[in-house]
């Protein structure tokens, strides 16, 4: 940074005040329109050109272009996106917005990337604030904010049809039509997507993780007057995601000479999930004066995840003895599962009981007869049929939010944005919550930007939030910029952020209701396992320090951003969301320190090069938070426009450790456009080649070969 500073010549006051700078601006950092050099933090903007060049069918794959962003997969249709990492199965600590509407699920603290009713073809750009931003967007923006912004309908009039097909079952269809009616412009988009996910698991068995979805999105803008406009949007999505049986069996088959084991081995139901999403959104803007804009945004959304199947297990899962054992500690049913699988001859081995249950797991010796009785009860039932019943993991989540925002230019050197919001969240599930849980959240926010001198820009922002389930929180941010030139600045940022426990973590009441129960069950029909949230979890808290440089070299068409950071997260809730061994607490801690950089260079009229790199040194007290952080990760992209309507891109992605697995991939895309103006046809081939030979995030996420390709034909008229 010092070298850059010394190499830049001095500039006069008029350079900042009088000379217009045609630079891209962003809105997602502080809610104020800012140039990259003015942002109080690190920002990555993935524009339309990059999105197309990536060839990506899904947003998580696009986010591999963001330095420090860790992308993993639990299943082919279930991706996990985390900034700097932490848990591999839940993405709990980033706010994700689509045109300002939060798609962060309130019930299970995650984002269903597959089920967002917005096509990649309709994305104009993605703004990613890399770092805590609770000061602008409230709790859950703990480690960053991703704002996915749609292409304005006035920029996409006419009709577009796109078909994509390839190996791994890729079969996508997209169609849109832009039109105008009096003082309104709008675009209707219809799209469908299919693929088969991973091919097989680490045992060589077929992997049931395919997906299918259909969706529509209608986006419009109406001019109400010379200074007022109304943007309106609605959409819906329906689809299904394949899943193997999601029920954890207490007694797995181990000896097919018994009827119980034979019928259990033959019982292989699926627990596929049906997904439905609906939303409607309004955004009113009123320019009260050239220095004052008032905005009101309101939306309603509803999400459904429905899964129903018939489960079978040993009758002991309804035994009061097993519930008594589970209430002594979650570890004991797991040990019983080990015993019933007869691992290492554990059946009836008193040494195993005393060594593992008493000595290592702390079971009171006087409770050993419970284990003996359960083993005997299961053994007596093995000559008969298993207990079977209908269960579901249905979950319905609803959100309503209204937000008011006022942007003011108070003077030539001071401007601010002030506002507040009210939000209502509700989750309904007889399985997860024994009914319904709801929450109300109120927010007040303010961000100030003050320029006391030509070379200095000061920023202060804060969010005050009242959460009925989690209490009050206050999240401040302070930043200072020193301008070496109008487009070159050094920055120092300090911020604090929080994340509120989600409804499941704090208010879970998860057990299975035995509907249509059959089999040798006597007495109770109450399932033994119960995952209950403590109800008193505190908010996670983060303190972040950042030093950085942002510069744009106009003579080279080169933009550079460098960041060094030190982040600490305390009160972390790191336990997985599961019915067995669910013991959420605030005992975990993580620390991240390191450096990131991104470089975007328009080398010539036809060539563009983009490089990213992140080095992260981390400490995590919970082993689950150590899995999705790569010490070294990055990307390198080369985009080129060739003569005769050809264009190409070549992108390398690499991470040295994602859940203890290396990830390296080379993506290429070649496209040819025929025609000109509003009537044209584009043919494109996208090819992805894995340079490593490891499972993607998990050992069972395997493909038959390293190559993945798909071709697309796009017609505009």
Automatic annotation (TrEMBL):
<comment type="similarity">
    <text>Belongs to the TonB-dependent receptor family.</text>
</comment>
<dbReference type="InterPro" id="IPR012910">
    <property type="entry name" value="Plug_dom"/>
</dbReference>
<dbReference type="InterPro" id="IPR000531">
    <property type="entry name" value="Beta-barrel_TonB"/>
</dbReference>
<feature type="domain" description="TonB-dependent receptor-like beta-barrel">
    <location>
        <begin position="402"/>
        <end position="657"/>
    </location>
</feature>
<keyword id="KW-0998">Cell outer membrane</keyword>
<keyword id="KW-0813">Transport</keyword>
<keyword id="KW-0798">TonB box</keyword>
<dbReference type="InterPro" id="IPR037066">
    <property type="entry name" value="Plug_dom_sf"/>
</dbReference>
<keyword id="KW-0812">Transmembrane</keyword>
<dbReference type="Pfam" id="PF07715">
    <property type="entry name" value="Plug"/>
</dbReference>
<dbReference type="InterPro" id="IPR036942">
    <property type="entry name" value="Beta-barrel_TonB_sf"/>
</dbReference>
<dbReference type="Pfam" id="PF00593">
    <property type="entry name" value="TonB_dep_Rec_b-barrel"/>
</dbReference>
<protein>
    <recommendedName>
        <fullName>TonB-dependent receptor</fullName>
    </recommendedName>
</protein>
<keyword id="KW-1134">Transmembrane beta strand</keyword>
<keyword id="KW-0472">Membrane</keyword>
<feature type="domain" description="TonB-dependent receptor plug">
    <location>
        <begin position="37"/>
        <end position="145"/>
    </location>
</feature>
<dbReference type="InterPro" id="IPR039426">
    <property type="entry name" value="TonB-dep_rcpt-like"/>
</dbReference>
